[in-house]
Amino acid sequence: MRSVISIKGLTKTYAGGFQALKDVDLEINRGEIFGLLGPNGAGKTTLINIVCGIVNPSGGQVRVDGHDIVTEFRETRARIGLVPQELPTETFETVFNTLRFSRGLFGKPPDNQHIEKVLKSLSLWDKRDTMIMNLSGGMKRRVLIAKALSHEPEVLFLDEPTAGVDVELRQDMWNVVELLREEGVTVILTTHYIEEAEQLADRVGVINNGEIIIVEEKSKLMRDMGKKQLMLHLYDELTEVPAELSRYKLDLSDDRRELTYTYDTQGEHTGITDLIQDLRDAGIRFNDLQTSQSSLEEIFVDLVHRDQ
Question: Is CATH 3.40.50.300 what the domain over 3-222 is classified as, yes or no?
Fold first, then answer.
């Protein structure tokens, strides 16, 4: 699949000597939803700001749809929509006029029909004649998203788009992202709500300390790095795990009525059949069992801790 964003050897060192990005290589495919995850200060926003032409790189190369972000700035920036973390500043303008002005900044001809479509998709149509200064924080966040879509970008960066907003906006945002995918727009999402990436992303990249530590398809990442747990609810309290079951590394709950067995989803043998037989041989009875699998958040936390 052809990449729409190609990043090679990207570095960024600020004046004080802090190195925010260290030799980053990343390819983002056309039409995909890419989740960029990382703890605070990991380099997510710096990476986005460089691609969008807001911050100058210290080294390396970034190309958007084949165009260099430094030597062909206008061509690259026109292809990108950005939803930053900050709220808008043009508070004395109406919502509709703000979008018209933003579209014009990118050299796009007036298209009231497109603006109407964007506003309706974000439940802003009834606020089109309202001045931004009179909107709530959540509505201002919707306007940021609408502005980023006003010039019909090929690539959309969503930098913490739903941070601190209500559940309704978050759901609206998810719906908009799905629609954009259907239209062929490439979406790069950074978020602290990892369930967003788990629900939306095709691939996930994790950045920590300015370095990309993994890039993988979400489903493969969860399959390869996830763990499954089998919880057995016991008939009777168990004072301790018998020594003959030590090889299973079972965890006994505080109320002593549940055993948890963790196993590798990719292992040749899960060991469950052997475990159940050995429990019976040890005279340990259970009346119910259930399984659970690692979430993307658990895998993310594990990856970041490994990289410390």
Answer: yes
C-alpha to C-alpha distance for 158 and 181, rounded to whole angstroms? 14
CA pseudo-torsion sign 54, 58, 62, 67:
positive
pLDDT mean by block of 10 residues, the chain; 308 residues: 90 93 95 90 92 94 94 92 72 90 91 94 92 86 88 90 70 81 90 77 91 87 74 90 90 91 69 88 88 71 69
**Is residue 37 within 8 Å of residue 205, measured between CB atoms?**
yes
pLDDT, position 20? 94
Determine the Cα–Cα distance for residues 137 and 128; give it in Å rounded to an integer: 16
| pLDDT on residue 163 | 66
Total-model pTM: 0.75
**Domain at 227-294: CATH code:** 3.30.70
Whether the Cβ atoms of residue 269 and residue 175 lie closer than 8 Å to each other: no
CA proximity to 297, closest of 193, 215, 202? 193
Domain spans in the chain, listed from the N-terminal domain onward: 3-222, 227-294
Taking alpha carbons only, the member of 259, 265, 278 closest to residue 223 is 265
Output the pLDDT for position 272. 85
In terms of DSSP H, where are the helices of the chain?
Answer: 44-51, 73-78, 95-105, 112-121, 137-149, 167-182, 194-200, 218-225, 272-281, 296-306
Rounded Cα distance, 124 and 117, in Å: 10
In order of 2, 56, 206, the CA distances from 226 in angstroms are 29, 37, 15
Give the orientation angle of helix 137-149 with respect to helix 112-121, to 10 degrees.
140
